[in-house]
Structures are given as C-alpha cells and as structure tokens.
Design brief:
Blueprint lengths: L4 E2 L8 E4 L3 H7 L5 E2 L10 E4 L8 H15 L2 H9 L8 H6 L6
Antiparallel strand pairs: 1-2, 2-4, 3-4
C-alpha cells in the first residue's frame, strides 16, 4: 500500500500528501506551500506543493515521506525499512544531480 500520493487534486496537480507527526504538522501548516487536503486532512494528513524549482527542498520531502510511512506502516514494514534504508543511501552528489533539485 502506498501512503504518499502525488497529484492530490486537480487544483494542485504537483503536490504530495503525507502524514507527519502531530507536532511537525502544526509547524508545517505555517509554510505557504503546505495545505490541508480534502478528505485526508481531518485524519492528520497534509499536502505540499512541489515543482522543479529550487523552492522544493527534496531532502525535506524525502524526510517527510519517510516519517509519513513510519506513521502508518506495520511494525514489520518499518523494520524492513530500517534494515535497508533508502533515503540514507542517496548520496549528496546524486541528489545534486537530480533534475528536480534545480541544479
């Protein structure tokens, strides 16, 4: 099951929906690119507008996806993620060359 959704609505076709922890959610909602998505919002999910400009911090996005997955995944799924971390394996050089990083 995928817990991160791209293109959360027709009004925001370049957005990501994640479920951060409660404290982080409050802080993130202060940011101009963050919104409460219909349907998912009341359950604690937030939406984030993303694009290929330098305004999108892909490191933060990766961290939010990881935290979101950990909020909703089964314990065995989190254990499998910890055994083979994906985010930690991405080198700064690879991230800098990512077309969406703006570099």
């Amino acid at each position: 099951m995928i817990f991160v959704t791209l293109g959360s609505s027709m009004d925001r076709p370049h957005s990501l929906v994640v479920k951060p922890d409660v404290e982080e959610r409050r802080a993130l909602l202060e940011l101009p690119r963050v919104f409460v998505p219909p349907y998912f919002g009341p359950a604690g999910w937030i939406g984030i507008d993303v694009d290929e400009s330098p305004r999108t911090d892909w490191t933060v996005i990766a961290e939010l996806i990881d935290a979101s997955y950990r909020q909703v995944a089964l314990k065995r799924q989190v254990a499998a993620l910890d055994a083979h971390p994906v985010v930690a394996s991405m080198s700064p050089t690879a991230a800098a060359g990512h077309p969406a990083s703006g570099n």
